Amino acid sequence: MTSQGGVQSLHRALDILETVARRGGRVTVAEVAESTALPMPTVHRVLRTLVERGYMRQMANRSYVLGYRLMPLASVANATVGAGASPVLADLVTELGETANLAVLAGEEAEYIAQAPSRYAMRMFTEVGRRVELHSTGVGKALLAQLDDVAIDAIVGRGGLPARTEHTLTTRLALLAEVDLIRRRGFALDEQEQEIGVRCVAVPLESNVVTGMAVSVSGPVTRMTDELVDRAVPLLQSAARQLVTDMVGLVSE
Which segment of the chain is annotated as a signal peptide (predicted)? Predict the structure, then answer.
């Protein structure tokens, strides 16, 4: 049998993997069934197969988490996407002068997978491959805005909201209010929340095909003025659309 022009069982397995990712990487069978509208026996069968292949793991409390077999696949995909993103990020640096980054949701953190450095001697040195917390960074909050509140609560429940600086959001209500604002205005700000002296503006990549990604520009607060942020937002949104178009093209090849 097929669904949406493909193989039904494969669609179900991918739906379950995406559900687990949206809910912060850990779910119960009941949560998967509720989110996917699949019968419990079907969810059990698919999860058992994913566990056997290493793409899911069953924990002692009978919940399920994403498996280690996904990691090498993600690494190869990140390398491919990162290389293709370089020209788009370089254009942002040309227009704005500050460091541009592309990040993906990696479990309960954001991982930088591509970067174009600022032309200034004094610039940000966030290296490709570095992982940062979601609640204290621009890219992280842009990624959180793509999740539902249930998934955000799950992430907060497991990792908490540690204060990286005096400006970090450290309460659930403050974070959810910030995420709601990001969803409405279309961009996220890091106001020295991860590192004193650093400001960042980020936008999510939004598409039915491309999810869990964000593009940003960051720099010293002395240069990342409100005027520069206002100029950066439409450029970042244009860059996000271009990145989505390029990635959809890679998927369809």
Answer: none
